[in-house]
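Section 5: illustrative case.
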């Protein structure tokens, strides 16, 4: 696949270039500041973009803004966003259009090569890839909402759905049948109040219902104007 990377940390940026090239992919452009991102994406129209959330000049949300702008200009562009910390407002905003082809990972995940490449491939295939640490923290923050009505097994299924896992992977991870997974997913949809749909995006809607319960109720303490 052809990839554009936007990351101001030179060491991490070059590391991702080497990693992707070694895996048989082509990095067609790199960007080291927010204003460089959208022009690079529009020029190269890659198969995927890997973007840091916070970039120069402001180190706030330049990468995220570029990702959202690129998705408007290039509908369906697969985007994998990287962040130093769990920032649920960013994750919710990124996923707010209810479409696939999006991921949100913590930067530590890049060092776990197989996991990083797997997440990128899922995003390129039109799925979602939400970092397990992001999912874990979001679940611990939820109080007094429909997620609380889920059984422990249903919460495990939702956790894996939020990461973007398919039914086969969920069944293998939990050591249950795919039929059981389908039943649990149906229960999750019902308890979260999601309407029946054949659109193929019900998993994304479940993730959004899950994220948006807390989004906007107070931003991450790290979200000020400071460096990552």
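Designed sequence:
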């Amino acid at each position: 696949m052809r990839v554009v990377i936007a990351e101001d940390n030179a060491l991490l940026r070059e590391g991702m270039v080497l990693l992707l090239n070694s895996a048989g992919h082509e990095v067609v452009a790199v960007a080291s500041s927010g204003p460089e991102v959208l022009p690079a994406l529009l020029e190269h129209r890659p198969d995927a973009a890997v973007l840091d959330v916070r970039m120069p000049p402001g180190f706030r949300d330049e990468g995220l803004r570029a990702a959202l702008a690129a998705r408007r200009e290039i509908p369906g562009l697969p985007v994998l966003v990287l962040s130093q910390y769990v920032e649920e407002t960013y994750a919710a905003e990124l996923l707010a259009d209810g479409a696939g082809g999006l991921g949100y990972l913590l930067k530590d995940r890049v060092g776990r090569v197989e996991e990083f490449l797997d997440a990128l491939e899922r995003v390129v295939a039109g799925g979602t890839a939400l970092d397990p640490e992001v999912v874990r923290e979001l679940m611990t923050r939820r109080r007094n909402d429909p997620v609380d009505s889920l059984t422990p097994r249903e919460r495990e299924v939702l956790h894996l759905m939020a990461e973007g896992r398919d039914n086969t992977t969920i069944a293998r991870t939990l050591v249950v049948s795919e039929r059981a997974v389908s039943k649990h997913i149906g229960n999750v949809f019902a308890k979260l109040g999601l309407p029946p749909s054949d659109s193929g995006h019900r998993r994304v809607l479940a993730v959004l219902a899950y994220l948006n319960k807390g989004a906007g109720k107070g931003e991450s303490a790290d979200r000020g104007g400071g460096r990552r």
